[in-house]
Each structure stands twice: as C-alpha cells, then as structure tokens.
Amino acid sequence: RRAAAAPPRFRPLVSAEAMVNTDGEGADAGGGDPMCVDESAGPVVVGADQCEGARLQDSGAAVGIEETREGQVPVSHPGGGMRVRGATVEEAENEEAPTVQGSKEGAEELLLKVVYSEEEAYKLYCDYGHRTGFSVRKGKQSYFTGTKRIRTKDYFCSKEGLKEAEKLTDENFNDPHTRTNCRAMVRFRANSQGEWRVIRLVSDHNHNLVRPEERHLLRSAKSLIAGRSCSAADAVLYGGYQLGGVPSQMAASTSVTNNAETPWQDLLPGFSGITRTSAVGTGELQRIVSHLKSRANLDGMFYWDVQLDRAGRMSNFFWRDGRGRMDYDCFGDVVVFDSTYRLNKQNYIVAPFVGVNHHWQTTMYGCALLADDSMSSFTWLFKSFLEAMGNRQPRSIFTNQDQVMSNAIEEVLPNTCHRIAHWHIQKNAASRLGALNASKAFNKMFTKCMQGCDTEAEFEGTWAAMLREFKLQDNKWLSKLYKLKQKWCGALNKCTFDGGVENEPQCDSLSNIFTCIVDKSTSLSTIVAAVDKLTEDWREKEFDEDVRCCQRPLSCIIKHSDILNHAAKVYTHRIYKLFETYFLDGCGATKFKALPCEDSDTYRFEMTMQGRGSRVCTVHLNMSTMQLTCSCSQFETMGLLCPHTLKALSIKNVGKIPEIYILKRWTRDAKQWVFNPKQYESSYQECMDDEAGYCNHAMRYAYDLVMKSEGQEELRRSLWEALEGGEKELEKYQNATQLLRLS
Fold it and tell me: Where exactly are the transmembrane stretches of this chain (predicted)?
C-alpha cells in the first residue's frame, strides 16, 4: 500500500529540554528542528509524549511530569516522583498496553519483550524490521529530568521524512535511497529500573517492503553487525586486559599466552632480525593483543600473527578477519600493498593489503604493523599473509618502490608479478624533480611513459625524447627508475592483470588509504581500531552498491542494443558504465578496415579510434569459437572487452558478450558459489581426496552461508534445519558402518 507523501505538520514543544537528536540520523525527518514533534503521526496527548522533560517545582525539587490516565489527578509526592491515586506512575506505566497504529502481525515479540539498554532496543526493532522487510534509522530521544539517562527513544523506518529538493516520482518512490515520508516508527520508554518497553508502534508503511530473499541487504542489518564488533573492540581496547587466553580453534591464528614455562620463541616461530628498543610500552602491546584475541573469539575465521625480535619482544603484527579472506577468495587476483605510512611517535609502519571488488571499490584484505622495513620483517609478513589466504598467490601486487621489499616478494611470492604503483612514482617525482613538476609538457611525457605507450619501442622513444628535451640524462633518480621499467611501464606489462587499479579515480583512492585516520602521533592500539572502522566503512559502501544493483534496474543508453542489455544483466552498475563507455567508443568513434584471413571462420580488422592519432589496433575474431584478441590487450589487463573488440562484434552482428569474456569478478554474482567446489569437477575431486583441503573448503563454505544468513530469522532457521539433516545422515552412515564391522 502506498499513501500520498504529504509534508508533516509540526507543533512546538512545551519545554526546551524535550526531544533532542543525538546521532543526526533522523535530523531531517522532522524538518531539522529538534524542538518539534510530528503531529500528523497521531493526536498529541498531554502527558509524557508532549511534556517529557518539563519541570514542576514542588518542595524545592524538580519533579518530572508523567502521563496520567483519564480522570486521575497527578499529585506531587514528598518522597520524590509523581503519584497517581492508587498507584505510582511507574506502576501505572507498566500496566499500560502499547498504542498500536496499524497491523500487529509479526510484532508480538516487539510489543511484549522487555530490554535493558538503548542498544538492545535498537537491535529488537532492527530484528523486527528484518523480518518485515525495511531498514531502521535512529530518531530523537528525551531524558529523565536533570539527568542524562534516556527516558524515551524513537526509531523510524529508513524512508521516514523527505529529502530537501527531492521530487517523488513513480520511478524513484521504491528506490532504497529515496525518502517517502513513511510514518512507520516505534517509541521505547525506560522506567526507573532501566526496563525498556514499547509504548507506541506505527506498523504500516507507504512503500514496498523488501522481498525475503533480499532482506540480508538491508542497511540496518549491516550497521547492527558492525556496531556489535565495534563495541566489543572498544571494550577490549581500552579495558586494559592482560595477555592470556587461547585463540579460537577454528581460526588459523597465533596467540601469546602468559605461561611462564613456555618461551614465546617456541610459540611464535619467526623473529625480527634486530632487537627493538621501541618506545612502545608493554601496556600498548597488551591492548593490541587483547583486541586481536577478542576479534578471534567473535569471528571463527579471524587470523592474526605476531613476530618477535631477538629480545623476545613483540615487534610485528598482521591480522585479517573472515570477511577479508572471503573477499580475497573472490577478488585476490590483484593486491595493493603500501608501506609508506609511518608513525613518528613509535616509528611503526602501518601497512594495509587492499584490492578492488566487483563494484570497483577499495576492499581490505588485511593489515600489518611493522617495527621496521628490514628483509626479515617483510619476509615474515608476506609468509604470514600467504598462509592467512590459503597459500594462494595473487596474480599481481602493487607496492611502493623499495628494493628490500622487492627482494622479499621475489622470495615469498615467486609466481606474482610485482609492480611499482604509479601513484608512488608520482609522489617521488614531486620531491625529486623540483620545478619540472610544474611543467605540463614534462608531466604529459612522463605519464605517457608510464601508461600511454603501446609498444616497448614507443616507450623507449618517448623516454629518450623526454630526457633530451628537459636535459635529464644525468638525473640519478630517473636513471634508477629506468632500470626498474619492467615493474612500472604499462607497455611492458600488457599481459598482466591489474584490475584497473592504475586508472583514475581508482589510483587516487588507493594512494590515500590512511590519510584520513593516520595521525603520526596516534597510538598503535588506536590505529588497529581505526583500521577496523575504516574496513567497516568500505564494506558499508559495498553493501549500498549491492542493494542498488538488486533494487534499481539499469537503463541502457541505447535501449534496444542486445549486447548492452546483456551487459546490464551480468555486470554491476559501475562496471556496466565502463563497458557502456567502451561500447560507445567502439561503435561511434572507431573506423575499421577488414583484412583477408586464411581461415574462413576468422576475421581480421584494423581499428583506428577517432581523435587518437594514427594508432592502429588489430582485432582477430573467430566466429566458430567466439575467440577474440586485440593488440591493445585491454581484456588481459582489465578483464573487460575493449572498444575495438566490441566494434568487431557489432560488425558481425553478435548480440551477446561471449561467455569466456565475462570475468566473474566484475559480475553481480561475483560472490556466489565461490566456496562450493562442486562447480569445478577438478576442485571437487581434489577437495575430496585431500583431508586438509576438504576441511578448509568445508569451513569456508559454512562460514559464507552463516554470514549470508546473519540477521534473518528465516534463513537462520533453514540453515539449522539443513545442518540437522546433514547430522542425521552422518549418524545413519556411521551406525551402518559400525554394524558392518561387527558382523
């Protein structure tokens, strides 16, 4: 049911202490005025809802005005509080039934349950929202008079209120980001004993509710999970816990215990090559370890590791959570590792491992704290990272320019293509080349050398011309950089997948990962918590894009183009927009010349992009196998067909993208069926034959299913039933086996 979204009417409150917005999430719901209540949601009753917080002076004490029943007279009581004839106000409140506007279906638990904190109240309404199909936003609250204890708290449907200057249309009304002035809400009230109960519920919505199979994408489901982990982290981080305890058995983690008889060197193999005389105190290191152990207890797939120096002090840390492992399984073909963030106070390096997901957004795989940039530290770190990721090496790793690190990568990741990130080269150029950085002509040639040349010969010619024109033949930094050209020149890496991490704006975002959270005087334990928070923020953005892909259909710029409609169905929104740009460039701005081939099934074209000079790209298309090759090698590096190949498909009237050229990591289904080895016969057989492989696959598969069912009662119930059914089958098989042995 959808009602007309009329602007709400407001009336000022009696008291200036009444309703205040504490978190900003509901600020625009009531016109942005914290001194107003929405009268359109129901009649204004003189009592707690209207006069909460108003003061009545009696016997020199401030007494809160409480809601009274019809025919009852409020009387001030010298013992404090307000009394209704025959009962105290608290007793009267406890006897009241909550006011319900709309259907009570599915709300029984919400209406009857008593909770004991604001967090529990929020979770209770979120659970109700997940079952019903809507997301939740926090609203305004009032306090007990003269205190900071919450008296009443409102929570709203996320589509409550209206956004300024946004017009409601049939197209955007059910968009998850559009406000529709929905009236659905709940109000909790706390009594003096700290019991929170629902006193008002508006259950009807004026918009479509989310389908059951999409409810795990609701924003408040994600926020609730993030909130729980952050609260636990804060409690451990600042609680001063001592070292000790045993990590989760499921987690492949390394822990430090307080057993005096067991030396740390035996528990933690691998030592830093130098003895640290760091300013980091024992208490600071204890907080880090306690935080990581707490995360391991909450997350069965959390992994963390510590390296000791020769004096037995903890020096280097690495950690990643279960979600980081899942993301690496899906998108770990490209890794960006940055070790340029150094804290002055402790002289520690904060080094994240990141990549790009199927929405072309930054995603966190893991993070490290390094006491130094020695060979032993980097070697230990890359080995720990590799172990944490199931010993699967990435195809490419992008780092800052560091010879020691490069040596460690060659030793630990021999099958990975090591690249020096362009953003790091440009940062160094700013300090090494002085006034030349202001020259547009130099910057144009320097950028072309990095990623604008098609062939090695073109690169060599451009580099030589740049040195000649700007008299840089004796520049030592450029000479050293030239010797490393294989690690940064695009023309020499045309067959290496990079996922577009060197393209704008992705390059800009990856080059400034920690600038928002790393203060050089920040403590290590605060950095660890800040990294976790940043990771949650990134995942929140991914979650928003997942919702957008599920709930908002794409409109193709050419509505009746078969290949664009096919791309819109398989790719995520952002990747589709890239594909659409390539398609338009290919079909609208590309000249072609057909050339003869010996094979009757193969066609060869020479393509020239308009406005790109005389550059010619050669495309081969085999119509029987649908195999495509292009001399520009964009598919090999980015995983998307280039304008030239799309032009060739258009010439031959091919209306679909060939399946072999749809890279799963860019699709909407990038995270589906990743952990089920049955989709690949070889993987399944390998998994069944190898005990360790079977255990590893089974745990990751189960973890993925648990994460997908989180926050949804129906899915949790289905998963439990499936597990119980599997357990019964196992018991049946074991009993039959035992009977055979006995006979």
Answer: none
pLDDT tens by residue, 424-462: 898 888 888 888 888 999 999 999 999 889 899 999 999
Per the CB < 8 A criterion, the answer to whether 233 and 529 are in contact is: yes
Nearest one of 87, 90, 42, 43 to 66, comparing CA atoms: 90
Cα–Cα distance measured from residue 104 to residue 100, given in angstroms and rounded to the nearest whole number: 7
User: Does residue 505 have a cis bond before it (omega within 30 degrees)?
Assistant: yes
Q: Where are the alpha helices (DSSP H) in 610-690?
A: 634-638, 643-651, 681-689
Where b means 16+ CB within 10 Å and e means fewer, 706-715 reads: ebebebbeeb
Closest CA to 617 of 643, 581, 655: 643
Q: Is 386 helix (H, G, I), strand (E, B) or coil?
A: helix
Q: Angle between the 562-570 and 643-651 helix axes, to the nearest 10 degrees?
A: 130
Q: How far is CA 32 from CA 38, 206, 504, 627, 672, in A?
A: 12, 22, 37, 58, 42
Q: Find how far residue 214's CA is from the centre of its chain.
A: 18
Give the residue among 381, 304, 373 at the shortest CA–CA distance from 341: 373
The rounded distance, in Å, linking the Cα atoms of 659 and 120 is 48
- Residue pair 203/100 in contact (Cβ under 8 Å)? The answer is yes
Q: How far apart (Å, rounded) are the C-alpha atoms in residues 506 and 511? A: 9
Q: Are 292 and 318 in contact (CB under 8 A)?
A: no
- pLDDT surpasses 80 at 547: yes
pTM over 0.90: no
Residues 6+ apart with CB under 8 A from 331: 355, 356, 357, 358, 363, 499, 665, 670
Band (281; pLDDT cuts 50, 70, 90): low
Residues 6+ apart with CB under 8 A from 8: 30, 31, 38, 39, 40, 41, 161, 181
Indicate the domain borders of the chain: 103-161+178-226, 280-421+501-551, 422-495, 553-672, 681-740
Q: 280-421+501-551, which class in CATH?
A: alpha beta
Confidence (pLDDT) at 521: 60
| Measured distance CA(221)–CA(132) in Å, rounded | 12
DSSP string, 497-555: --TTTTSTTHHHHHTTSSTTT--TT--HHHHHHHHHHHHHHHHHHHHHHHHHHHHS---
C-alpha angle 333/322/575, rounded to 5°?
40
- Which is more confident, 296 or 701? 296
The answer to whether 590 and 607 have CB atoms below 8 angstroms apart is yes
| Beta-carbon contacts of residue 187 (< 8 Å; ≥ 6 apart) | 49, 152, 153, 154, 198, 199, 200, 201
- Give the position of tokens 């189960």: 702
> What's the rounded mean pLDDT across residues 570-593?
90
Q: Residue 156 half-sphere exposure, CB side, CA atoms within 13 Å? A: 26
Task: Report how far residue 648's alpha carbon sits from residue 655's, in angstroms, rounded to the nearest whole number.
Answer: 11
